[in-house]
Amino acid sequence: MSEKKGHKRPAYLQYVFGGGSGMGATCIVQPLDLVKTRMQISGVGGAKKEYKNTFDALTKIIKAEGVSGIYKGLGAALLRQATYTTTRLGVYTGLNDYYRKSTGAAPNLLVSMGLGMMAGAVGAFVGTPAEVSLIRMTADGRLPVAERRNYTGVFNALSRMVREEGLVTLWRGCVPTVGRAMVVNAAQLSSYTQAKQALVKKCNMKEGIGLHFVASMISGFVTTAASMPVDIAKTRIQNMKTAPGAQPEYKGAVDVLIKVVRHEGLFALWKGFTPYYCRLGPHTVITFIFMEQMNTAYNKFVLKDENATSSGL
Question: What pLDDT is stored for residue 26 in this prediction?
């Protein structure tokens, strides 16, 4: 990117733009994330499923809880983006720069996947408290009134979890959360790169939003299929209630997977596939568009450089 002499973009802005664009995209796709969570915890232990499909779930939630009901947990979702996305971007950028300086070469696909997995793991650990809050807040509306947690906001959720269940609760489901982040980062990176190359070569698509959108949707499908079993394990563990001294419902991620398959069938591991997929692809595209606009605005109004490329990555 060309920048005027004496005017250099501060490194921290990439983290700000990355986290900010992720938060903007989340505001748009949050209803799909809520539907995905509700579908994943529906039919626990072989009980009757509450929703037939994504549209049925969306309709029932709006009917029972109003339009605002599909945005429950938005504060936690935004905090998750502010912690997870920003950390992941910062760690990945740092590791990428270190690799370039150490080897004198750009990382190849396998190295990039490895760096992405490490960055995803660190980001997931930092973002787990927000993730636990998000799962609980989006799931609360399906519980009987007497059993609802009734968190008033994300910080109320965090403080009450620490007070009522202990500090460690904030990292409940951390292992499958980290595992999911590593799977997502590896799958997204490789499938997006391969899809993009194939679309350019086989379909003669040109660089631009259209190419990014199609490649992101293909990547989203592959990533969804690969990561959903880990995601449903994470969701069930983070949503479970454990009374003091009582045996927890699940011992760990493997126990969740075994019980889901035993009681609900193999394909229950991909429960909520449609809303998950419809969220993942567009979220990537919308994040990219927002980040481009932030970079363009910075170049134009701060650097006063109309010719600088918009992308900061």
Answer: 92
43 and 50 Cβ atoms separated by less than 8 Å: yes
Contact 33, 54 (CB under 8 A): no
| DSSP sequence for 157-209 | HHHHHHHHH-GGGGGTTHHHHHHHHHHHHHHHHHHHHHHHHHHHHHS-PPSSH
Name the token pair of 102: 């150490």
The pLDDT, as a whole number, for residue 8 is: 62
CA distance 237 to 3: 48
Distances (CA, A) of 39 to 63, 134, 144: 16, 15, 16
Residue count of the chain, please give it.
313
Q: What is the mean pLDDT of each run of 10 residues along the chain (313 residues)?
A: 54 80 90 89 77 89 92 93 86 83 84 87 94 92 87 94 94 90 80 82 84 83 88 88 74 90 91 85 78 79 65 43
Q: Is the alpha carbon torsion for 230, 233, 235, 237 positive or negative? A: negative
* Residue 312: predicted pLDDT: 41
Query: What pLDDT score does 48 carry?
Result: 76
What pLDDT score does 313 carry? Answer: 41
Spatial CA neighbour of 229 closest among 169, 191, 279, 176: 176
Tell me 48's DSSP state: P
Whole-Å CA distances, 230 to 125, 158, 236, 266, 305 = 15, 23, 10, 13, 45
Compute the distance between CA of residue 272 and CA of residue 51 in angstroms, rounded to an integer: 10
**Burial zone of 210 (CB within 10 Å; 0-12 exposed, 13-18 middle, 19+ buried):** exposed
- Give the separation between CA 303 and CA 294, rounded to whole angstroms: 13
Residue type, 277: Y
